[in-house]
């Protein structure tokens, strides 16, 4: 009797539990033979080769290094101030027109420059004032150079060229009695210059740099003939003839020379 009851209980439990268990089972989703990576796909995705894995890791390391490299911006615009010294030597002013010979002088120099940067190509303009011991000279130049980034440093190799002038000076007669131009001369001495630049800048931050630079110039200066003195037409004829025969009022003076110097550079760099 006990065996019959046990068998009956087992049959009843199986009858009610099997449908419940069957409801919990879900059939697996069908396999898409065209899915990427499927073994049945006509074009299964191949596993990356060791070389491809190495290249991917290398690219990741380069991207990481680029982000961490000195924290610089992608530079587009720059401003620069500089202070230093200049030595100039004008080989010779013609003695029959200016009586200025071996005009050499040295002194402090200050300047300001601004421009754009296209990766390593530098374009800009600058203004310099040379407060020399014997005369003062202004220079307005354009700049063109290549600036190579080396870690937190930039190495500049470039050139410049433009306009130089001593300016309007005081009394024309003083020019024939002085060995060098002075602020009292009325003579306008002007010309052109061209030269080379070398500099090394250190980026203190992504926007500021400090550095040192060297430059050399070739100079060509010209003094045009001096204007006739005021009241020339009212002078006696013999004085008018003397003025007309004076080379100072007939001819221009020219000179070739060179300049060299160095400066401390402070830069502001703007970009993305």
Question: Care to describe what's here?
Answer:
It is a single chain. The radius of gyration is 42 Å and the shape is rod-shaped. About 11% of the residues have low confidence. By secondary structure, it is α+β, with helices and mostly antiparallel strands.
Brief overview:
With 272 residues, this protein is α+β, with helices and mostly antiparallel strands. Helix content is 22%, strand content 47%.
What are the secondary-structure elements, in order, as H or E? HHEEEEEHEEHHE
Q: How large is the share of residues in beta strands?
A: over 45%
Strand order, largest beta sheet: 1-2-3-4-5-6-7-8
Cα(first) to Cα(last) distance is 93 Å
What characteristics describe this protein?
single chain; 272 residues; alpha+beta; Porin; 8-stranded antiparallel beta barrel; 5 helices; 8 strands; rod-shaped
Topology:
Elements: H1 2-24, H2 50-68, E1 75-92, E2 101-118, E3 121-131, E4 136-150, E5 153-167, H3 172-175, E6 189-203, E7 208-223, H4 237-245, H5 247-250, E8 253-271
